[in-house]
Amino acid sequence: MRRQLQALWDSKVQALLHAAFQRVGVSAAPSWHDWVWSHVVVWSRLLEWPAPTPDGTPDDNMQEGLLPFIDFCNHASASPVVRVAVDDAMVLVAAAPLPPATQVCISYGDKSNEELLFLYGFALPANPHDRLLLHAPPSALEPFGALPERLALLRSRGLSLRWLLPDLDEEPQAAVHSWQAALAAARVVTMPAAEAEQAAAQEERADMSPVEAPVGEVAASSDAAETAHEDAVRWLAELLKARLRALDGADEPEDVAGAGWGSLRDEDEIEKGEADGPGTGGMRAAQGVEAGSDIRAGYCDYYRASERRLCEDYLDLASQLLEPTPFVMDR
C-alpha cells in the first residue's frame, strides 16, 4: 500500500496539489507526509450511507462519505444502534434502551478482520465475519504449462484465482468465493496441457458463456474424472499449506522482515490479551498509538489466528476429500 501511495503521489497528486496551491497564492503545498495522513484519515473514517436523489430522498444505492460526529463512533459487530436517513440528515437510533454512560457504538459492516485491520487499524477476536484469503500466484500455475490457455479458460468460465473463503458452515459472500468455485478453478489449472489447449480452442470457437461452460469437465472416464478431482484438491491443499506457513512465520516475506510478522503467539496467550471484549475495537486501535506496538501486534495476532483456523479447517476438508489416501499435512 505504501508503494502504491508513493507511486500515486509521484505520478499525479504532488503536481496537482502544487499547481492548485500556486493558483491560490499559497507557497507551502502539502508534503508527502500530509498526503499519507489525509489518506489514512479519510479511509479510516468513511461510512456507507444512502445516496441522495435529486428530490432529496435517499435511494437504495449506497455511497461512502464522511459523516461528522457519527464517524467518532467505535465499532461493535452486534450494535443495537443503527443509522437512519431523516430528511437531509443521518440520525443514530437505538433499537434498545442504552444505560447511562454507555458508549454508543455503530457497526462498520460485516467486515472480516482483514478488512478491519486494513481500513481501521484494529481486529476482533472470534470475528463472525472472517474470511480466509487464498490466492494462487503465477508460480503455482507455471509447472502445468499452457498458461495462456488456462487463463483464457478461467476467464470464459467466470472463475478466479483469488478467493475469500468463509467458515465451512457459512454461505460465501458470492459464488466466486466458494470452495466449489476454488475447486473448479483448480481443475482448470491442473488439467493436462493438451486438454487445456483443446478446451480453450473449443470455447473460443463456441463463444461459450460462463454458465454454459462445463466447469472442470473431464469426459474421458470416471477414473479420469476422479484423478482430475484429486489433482485439483491436492493443488488447493498446497496453496493452503503455503498460506499456513506464511501465517506461522515460516515463510516470512523479505519486505516485511522485522515488521512484526514473525511467529504467531499461542492462541491462549492471544485470548488472555483480550480484556475489553469484542465491542471496542476502534477505541483500542486509537489507544494503541499511545500504548506502543503491543496492541497493534495483538490486532495482527487476532487476524492471523482466525486465518490460521480457517486454513486448518480447509486443510482438514481437503484431507477428507482425498481419503483413503490423504496428503501429509507437513506444517
Structure commentary:
- α6 packs across α8 (222-247).
- The longest helix has 29 residues, at 293-321.
- This protein is mainly alpha-helical.
- It is globular, with a radius of gyration of 24 Å.
- It has helices spanning 2-23, 32-45, 113-120, 138-141, 147-156, 179-190, 193-206, 222-247, 267-272, 281-291, 293-321, and strands spanning 47-52, 58-65, 81-86, 89-94, 132-135, 162-165.
- The chain has 3 domains: 1-45, no CATH class; 49-108, no CATH class; 110-331, no CATH class.
- The strands form 3 sheets. Strands 1-2 form a two-stranded antiparallel ribbon. It has a two-stranded antiparallel ribbon with strand order 3-4. A two-stranded antiparallel ribbon has the order 5-6.
Descriptive labels:
globular, two-stranded antiparallel ribbon, 331 residues, single chain, mainly alpha, two-stranded antiparallel sheet, 3 domains
